Amino acid sequence: MLVDSSPDYCHKVNDLSTISPVASNLITRLGADDVTRSEIIELIEQDEVIYTNVFKFVRSAAFELPRYPRNIAEAFDWLGVHGLKDLIFSIISKKFFMDLEGWRESLLTAKLARYFAEQLNLPDHEASDIFMRAQLELLAQSIFKKFYSNQYAPIESISINSLAEWYQVLDYEALLFGISSLDLTDQIVEKFQLPLSLVDFSDKNLLLVQLAKTMIKAELEDQIDVDQILDDDIVKKYNLTDLKVDLVLLKELSSYIKLL
Questions:
Q1: What does the alpha-carbon distance between residue 26 and residue 55 come to, in Å, rounded to a whole number?
Q2: Per-residue pLDDT tens for 201-225?
Q3: How far apart are CA 16 and CA 192, in angstroms?
Q4: Does residue 176 contact residue 2 with C-beta atoms inside 8 Å?
Q5: pLDDT tens digit string along 46-104?
């Protein structure tokens, strides 16, 4: 059954949580060329929730630091600007998901998408945007699932084992709701004044996010080549022939994330 009207789906995010001005400013400034270490430390110290959770998260094996930072300055130095941005965005996004498992899936998907970006030697700011975009797209999907669960049920039943099947899901969303979760993601970015670089995505970077989402959903072997789930023309067009992921390591990462 189609949704009769065109509701403000973004407004539904307000029913879940809000982004504090400090958190929004942090994400923006961490993506700026002129950001300074002292500025970021000062901003983090203004938000007790972010401050507390930075230390909780960096003590998880999911973030793969050699040892625990003793203060925000060390966290900044060890994670780097964009690594810290990823971590802080993960903290912020946790409040929006209806259940912990949904957030954990978004974090795992985001880290896989970033891993792809790193394999392709994309600039760190692009890899970070890919990380954030992956979490936001799953947040957009969660809005459909929570507030329109009956209409979304047929989509949930679709088996996803290829990128083509993932795009079928997006088409089905657009048919039911007049908007896909990709388009809703763009609206969420604009509504909460997140960096517009999260909207102005190249086709290739957007593809990496969809690829990560597909691989997390699919039942895969312990080692898989990306061309097993991608069309040959896409692999050639975006030069993805050597893109691989070790599913054993991915499962280890998943187990670490479950502790967060």
A1: 16
A2: 888 888 889 888 888 876 544 445 5
A3: 13
A4: yes
A5: 988 888 888 888 777 666 666 777 888 888 888 888 888 998 999 888 888 878 888 99
Q: What is the C-alpha R_g of the chain?
A: 18
Q: Strand pairing of 244-246 and 223-225?
A: antiparallel
Q: Are 109 and 135 in contact (CB under 8 A)?
A: yes
Residue type at position 153: A
Q: Round to whole Å and give the CA distance between 207 and 186.
A: 15
Q: How far apart are CA 71 and CA 54, in angstroms?
A: 10
Domains in the chain (CATH in brackets) are 9-257 (1.10.3210.10)
DSSP code string of 80-118: HHHHHHHHHHHHHHHTTSSSHHHHHHHHHHHHHHHHHHH
